[in-house]
Design goal:
- InterPro entries: Glyas_Bleomycin-R_OHBP_Dase, Glyas_Fos-R_dOase_dom, MMCE/EMCE_epimerase, VOC_core.
- This is Enzyme related to lactoylglutathione lyase.
- Keywords: Lyase, Metal-binding.
- The protein is an alpha/beta fold.
- It has 2 domains: 1-58, Signal recognition particle alu RNA binding heterodimer, srp9/1 (2-Layer Sandwich); 68-133, 2,3-Dihydroxybiphenyl 1,2-Dioxygenase, domain 1.
- It is built from 4 helices and 8 strands; from the N terminus they run βαβββαβαβββα.
- The strands form 2 sheets. A 4-stranded mixed sheet has the order 1-4-3-2. Strands 5-8-7-6 form a 4-stranded mixed sheet.
- Strand 7 and strand 8 form a beta hairpin.
- The longest helix has 12 residues, at 13-24.
- The radius of gyration is 16 Å and the shape is globular.
- The two termini are 17 Å apart.
- The mean pLDDT is 92.
Amino acid sequence: MNFASIRIITDDIDRLVEFYEQVTGVTAERPAPVFAEFVMPTCTLAIGHSKTAQLFGADAVVAGSNRTVIMEFRVDDVEAEYARLKPAVEDWVQEPTTMPWGNRSMLFRDPDGNLVNLFQPVTEDAMKRFAGR
């Protein structure tokens, strides 16, 4: 089994696509006006308009209601990403901090309130854990 993607459902797809293009540096593929994908080497982030949620069942998905998932992106330099994104991000949860498990991490919310973590392994143990991933 291969993990294929994570999908965010939103009422404002253009706003979220623009935000994640800025965060990831990847241009979204837009096979339909109500759907976008950020295809990256290790994962795909998909964004669908709330109109697409009807395809999954009446109340299966509610846009902007997630408070339990953290989308995590490994980066080369957390400090550089923080400086680059500071003007673009409105809701900072945590400025760059070294976590007990050895990652340098910063957290913020996207325009729909989803939590995003950009992290960099900085301790020897953390770097070993992520070697080859």
